[in-house]
Amino acid sequence: MTELKPTFTDVDSRKIITKLVDLNGFEYLSVEEITDDGASTKLLLRLNMYDAKRLSQACEMFMQRSIARNFADLSGHLTPTDRVDIFGEDED
Q1: How many domains does the chain have?
Q2: CA distances from 86 to 44, 68, 81, 83, 89 (A)
Q3: Whose CA is closest to 44, among 69, 3, 7?
Q4: In a domain, 38, yes or no
Q5: Is 88 inside any structural domain?
Q6: Which of 11, 51, 74, 82 could form a disulfide with 78 if both were Cys (CB 3.0 to 4.6 A apart)?
Q7: In this predicted model, what pLDDT tens digit does every residue of 17-43 receive, in sequence order?
Q8: How would you class 34 by CB atoms within 10 Å of its CB: exposed for 0-12, middle for 13-18, buried for 19 or more?
Q9: Residue 1 falls within a domain, yes or no?
Q10: Residue range 45-86, pLDDT digits in tens
Q11: 30 in a domain, yes or no?
Q12: Domain, as residue range, for 49
């Protein structure tokens, strides 16, 4: 058996694969977990184009919030000298 290559590994160390599948003449995005044998999968989600769009929007919102939060944390710990070096801000 050929071992499957994950699309990504989630924060719980689960190996996840995504693929396009055709069922009854419709195309879906299948999100599956690779099982311990490395050669088979367990279905987690099957998304049509509307579901995939909603998931994409949720991911985009998460990314924007995460980036903003990380930037705020980083920016809050910078000294005035760091701000000038990184952002070119004056020390006012």
Answers
A1: 1
A2: 42, 17, 9, 5, 8
A3: 7
A4: yes
A5: no
A6: 82
A7: 999 999 999 999 999 999 999 999 999
A8: buried
A9: no
A10: 999 999 999 999 999 999 999 888 887 777 666 677 877 777
A11: yes
A12: 8-77
